[in-house]
Amino acid sequence: MSDDPILSKLDNHVAIVTLNRPKVLNALNIELMDQLIQALEGHDADPNVRCIVIHGAGNRAFAAGADIGDMAEASVVDMYERNNLARWGRIKSVRTPIIAAVSGFCLGGGCELAMLCDMIVASETARFGQPEINIGVIPGAGGTQRMTRAIGKARAMEMILTGRFMTAREAFDAGLLTRVVPAEVYLEEAVHLAKEIAERPPIAVRIAKDTINKAFETPLSEGIEYERKAFYMLFDTEDQKEGMKAFMEKRKPQYKGK
Ligand code: CAA
Questions:
Q1: 212 — phi, psi (to 5°)?
Q2: Which site among 91, 131, 144, 184 is 20 to 30 Å from 216 CA-CA?
Q3: Is 80 exceeded by the pLDDT of residue 1?
């Protein structure tokens, strides 16, 4: 297998991206994150790609966090000038849906990366946590905000203040995950879900993702108005005409992403 920290391949309309540092449980160093962001932006610009799956190489981890070796001796000025975590925000601008396929440890920055994705499909073996408190810091890539929104204040407080890991079942029950599946099929199931999404009209899919994400940023009345305008806008796509015509003609629609 290649030593590149990020590997990418295409399976029809689905891009499968691998975090590839299995010896260090796919710890997210600067090089890996830079290549990941480039890969995601590249797939986003490719009209052939309709959904992206990210998973970790090896079975032990999705990612065990940001690379502690990169930060252990850093000063405030080093951290401020590198500003690495701000670059992670570019992942949020990717319009193509992203599914995190998680097996094993999904910790710290790894959990934050999974929460930056749109859905998480987890193996029964997955463990989720924000253990930064145990190394003298707090989550720095959105964990305090996204975990709180996903599982609520009471549980987020416990997870982040103690650094405890959650099982996949517990994370699912708390609302962090889309699905929990047997370990042997976690990637297959994530790719299957991605393929289901890839069969849908791509512009409507991207606009649905954008509109759902608005719910986290706006008051309800503004979000509803945003949704209504997005709904009207889709009536200028060929795929809307095709989708409704196919329904009337009782046949399967052929979507073109136009
Ligand atoms: N950074 C760098 N290296 C890491 C790492 C990390 N986050 N996590 C694991 N590794 C390395 C270990 O150093 C070890 O390398 P060596 O074989 O060269 O010693 C290798 O991966 C295997 O790990 P362990 O031997 O520790 O495996 P284990 O099964 O005993 O424990 C673990 C697994 C519980 C996940 C443990 O590795 C661990 O606690 N990792 C750190 C988790 C963590 O604190 N993550 C948060 C990082 S900070 C962060 O993410 C900030 C942010 O918000 C952006």
A1: -60, -45
A2: 131
A3: no
